[in-house]
Write a structure and sequence with these properties.
Helix content is 33%, strand content 31%. The protein is α+β, with helices and mostly antiparallel strands. β15 and β16 form a beta hairpin.
């Protein structure tokens, strides 16, 4: 049984604001995936202005392996599916474990079939569900009649006790970086993505306002606002983990960050500095090689290629170095196995990947959970698109705990002080959105 679909003409900005207000006020479960106004340019191409999966027809039940359960669920549904993979699924993929504390306790994997799907491209919205035309027209009319929720003048965090805190003091961070560099000198690893958590307790959050603030500051192409009951995701990710278009797979790892300039000339100078920085280029090449290797496990022979190396892309507060790697999926491979073999993404682990993840567990102090995982969607035909969960705020409404991580790539040539400053630079977008 296929979904019934009707296409409507819309004004995208107004429709988006009304849609967000409606789903936030009416549904406990939804995924809203958003290009947040980032233009398609270079190798960053957005299929949708925004895409929403609303309400839950059914959700995946994990029976044994998460990835095998997802295969069964996808084969059974043959429909739209929205959801995420958390970083700690690494323990199913490799002989790894995690013993750190996790206050938020998001499920390790979560996928659901939505009642309603809304696809927006340019000035048209397609609304699809398993209901009648009258039902769909009523949904559209309800959205249009929804008053837009005005943003508050003050913080999106309406109540909190105390300031945002880090799980790791600066001195601890510096010492850990030096220990990681000792592993590099011994040849255990070449590079490692080292992260720290920032958190706020007793926080009452207006999630919709927080999301609106976040994308205003960032304009990231893989943003997301998601609710699964008390678990909420407010994301302004600039990074694509993996996309499938028919048989073509695309991964776009980020390695290399520099701040924005105060004027156009300084901005251009900083982009040039990032492009020519030998440390950043070295980091980028290491991860590109790792991604090429990951893709080769399920790609057609000789189909893996680097389509762009050292691309410089600009976001709200930073410039990033992004490379694009593609491959053709081997016809004998399952698409979900392809995700599994590439997960977690190399840009958030290091090289070699397994040893890097072992050392991440040793030197980081908290579970990453959903951070540095991936969220996105499957289409009914099996195509998919998933981001990397970075520049993201995670919120547990019942416990009133808010959390976000930032990190940087540690190499032999890293300066621990500068790596710490990079973590703070990446935290700026979240702190500005929170008005903290």
């Amino acid at each position: 049984m296929s979904r019934n679909t009707i296409c409507f003409d819309i004004h995208p900005k107004e429709f988006k604001e009304k849609l967000l207000t409606w789903i936030d006020g009416s549904f406990d479960i939804f995924f809203f995936l958003d290009s947040s106004g980032y233009p398609s340019k270079g190798f960053i191409q957005n299929e949708y202005g925004f895409l929403a999966g609303i309400g839950e027809l059914e959700k995946m039940k994990v029976d044994g392996s998460s990835f095998e359960s997802l295969k069964q669920f996808q084969n059974q549904c043959q429909d739209w599916m929205f959801g995420y993979f958390s970083y700690d699924l690494k323990n199913e993929i490799e002989s790894l474990s995690s013993s750190h504390a996790d206050d938020l306790k998001f499920p390790e994997i979560y996928f659901f079939r939505p009642k309603i799907v809304i696809e927006v491209k340019d000035f048209q919205a397609e609304i699809s569900c398993f209901e009648t035309d009258d039902f769909i027209r009523n949904v559209f009319d309800t959205i249009l009649s929804t008053p837009i929720k005005k943003l508050p003048l003050k913080s999106s965090v309406s109540q909190n006790k105390g300031d945002i805190k880090s799980r790791m003091q600066k001195e601890e961070y510096i010492d850990a970086v030096k220990e990681i560099q000792n592993h590099i000198k011994k040849g255990d690893i070449y590079e490692l993505n080292f992260c720290q958590e920032f958190y706020l307790e007793n926080a009452t959050v207006e999630s919709l306002f927080l999301y609106s603030n976040l994308i205003e500051y960032s304009h990231s192409p893989y943003s997301a606002f998601c609710k699964m009951g008390s678990h909420q995701i407010i994301s302004a990710s600039p990074e694509r983990f993996l996309k499938k278009e028919k048989m073509r797979l695309i991964s776009q790892p980020i390695k290399g960050t520099i701040r924005r300039g105060k004027n156009e000339q300084e901005d251009n100078d900083l982009k040039e500095k990032l492009f020519h920085d030998p440390k950043e280029r070295s980091e980028n090449v290491m991860i590109v090689d790792l991604v090429r290797n990951d893709l080769s496990h399920y790609a057609q022979k000789n189909s893996v290629q680097v389509e762009e190396l050292f691309g410089i892309y600009t976001f709200g507060r930073v410039h990033q170095m992004i490379s694009t790697v593609s491959a053709l999926l081997d016809e004998e491979e399952n698409k979900i196995d392809a995700i599994k073999k590439a997960f977690p993404m190399g840009s958030m682990t290091g090289a070699p990947k397994v040893k890097a993840m072992q050392l991440i567990e040793k030197y980081e102090t908290r579970k990453r959970g959903l951070y540095s995982g991936a969220l996105g969607y499957f289409k009914p035909d099996g195509d998919f698109d998933f981001n990397v969960v970075i520049r993201s705020i995670l919120y547990e409404q019942t416990k009133k705990i808010l959390s976000f991580h930032t990190g940087s790539a540690i190499t032999y040539y890293s300066d621990a002080e500068k790596e710490y400053e990079e973590c703070l630079l990446k935290a700026t977008t979240m702190l500005e959105a929170l008005n903290l």
